[in-house]
Design goal:
binds flavin-adenine dinucleotide, monooxygenase, ten-stranded mixed beta sheet, FAD/NAD(P)-binding domain, 15 strands, 24% strand, 374 residues, alpha/beta
Length: 374
């Protein structure tokens, strides 16, 4: 069906909401996107766009076969022990090298395309369930993130469970690497992932530690660079980077929430992105899944005769996929933090099985939302 003359409202201007707004505008709807923040701004740091996310971007017409300007191509992952010794090299997936991209750059790419497609952007505008603004739309897509208000209205309120893990996120000056491996350094009770961004002018760090005393959630919480340096001092050598250059860090308490059991209300409203399937960051799939959602929603609208039918097809196609990926990400959490002697065993397995590990993830990366059955 064409959505001509239908009024579509998208709640949330993150990667998921912006991609959905673009897909709906392409389907012919008059789209208004509401974002509660004042501006999109340069917020966030690195995202990994794997082959499945790349296929979604291509399907939305945002890139060809190559990466967008500034994105860095991965050469796989080097896995290092606390001594700095490389224990394994995991090659890039067979379905294609991952792109490392700044979240703000990916968001700009989507925002420009959505604006060109006619999406009306409203900043500083929070839309809550039951509001008059929400009531006026023929179709409503709630992409309001992992702390979604809309999930309570469409699915059910869920209680978050703190994992006892805290992620620190920071940017360091880079060395201009245009292609580079990511480094995953594992130590007892902590691990660090690092990779280049923006043509290598920046280096992204995500450092996860086990910590019972901190539960704060949200991407804008600032941490103390001195505390970060102290806690991760041993990783400076492992990563080969000068943590002294670090000026700003953000903290994020990792919480578990189940994938929504119900993604749409049977009438006109649907959840999308983290609002439907919050995930832990251990597989770097949050943004990729949100991009996949947007492409499948666009295809479901194209194929169905009515909006309720399209939303039912969207949910049926997306829920099993999101559940499988979220489960895999959750399974990775414990592997990275083993203490000796278990960690020696895990490292030995990685040393001989790095390639196998990559192949095991192939099902995640080989998914193409422009061709997946719906
Ligand atoms: C500020 C920020 C920084 C991030 N930085 C990183 C990063 O460095 N690395 C990484 O891997 N991931 C990061 N993420 C998460 C990552 O972008 C998402 O997990 C993924 O892209 C899925 O996006 P989403 O659109 O579903 O949700 P989100 O990216 O969480 O976007 C949800 C959006 O909805 C808005 N919103 C919420 N409620 C309302 C409402 N009632 N009305 C209107 N708007 C509302 C929020 O302000 C937000 O912009 C960040 C997210 C945010 C919001």
């Amino acid at each position: 069906m064409r959505l001509d003359r239908s009024r579509a409202l998208v709640v949330g201007g993150g990667i998921g909401g912006m991609a959905a707004a673009l897909a709906l505008a392409r389907a012919g709807a008059q789209v208004t996107l509401h974002e509660r923040a004042e501006a999109f701004g340069d917020v966030g740091a690195g995202l990994q766009v794997s082959a499945n996310g790349q296929a979604a971007l291509r399907s939305l017409g945002l890139c060809g076969d190559g990466p967008p300007a500034g994105a860095v191509l991965s050469e796989g992952t080097a896995i290092r022990a606390p001594s700095g010794r490389t224990v394994a090299r995991v090659p890039p997936p067979r379905s294609g090298a991952t792109w490392y991209i700044h979240r703000a750059d990916l968001l700009s790419l989507l925002t420009e395309a959505a604006t060109a497609a006619g999406v009306d952007m409203r900043m500083s505008s929070a839309v809550r369930p039951g509001s008059a603004t929400a009531g006026a739309a023929d179709l409503l897509v709630a992409a309001d993130g992992g702390l979604s208000d809309w999930r309570g209205a469409i699915d059910a309120r869920v209680r978050a469970q703190f994992t006892g893990q805290v992620a620190w996120r920071a940017l360091l000056p880079g060395r201009g690497e245009a292609r580079a491996p990511a480094v995953l350094a594992m130590g007892p009770g902590a691990h660090v992932v690092s990779y280049p961004l923006r043509d290598g002018s920046l280096r992204n760090l995500v450092a996860v530690e086990e910590r019972r005393d901190f539960t704060g959630e949200g991407w804008r919480q600032k941490g103390d660079p001195e505390v970060f340096r102290r806690r991760f001092a041993r990783f400076g050598a492992v990563l080969g980077h000068d943590l002294g250059a670090l000026r700003e860090v953000h903290l994020w308490g990792l919480h578990l929430r189940p994938v929504a059991a119900r993604w749409q209300d049977g009438k006109r409203a649907a959840l999308l992105g983290d609002a439907a399937h919050p995930t832990l960051p251990f597989l770097a799939q949050g943004a990729n899944l949100a991009l996949e959602d947007a492409v499948i929603l666009g295809r479901a609208l194209d194929l169905a005769g009515t909006i309720p039918e399209a939303l039912a097809r969207y949910e049926a196609a997306r829920r099993p996929r999101a559940e499988a990926v979220v489960r895999l990400a959750r399974g990775n959490a414990w592997r990275f933090h083993l203490r000796p002697p278990l960690s020696w065993g895990a490292q030995a397995v990685l040393a001989v099985g790095g390639g196998l590990l990559a192949r095991g993830l192939e099902r995640v990366y080989a998914y193409d939302p422009s061709e997946a059955p719906i």
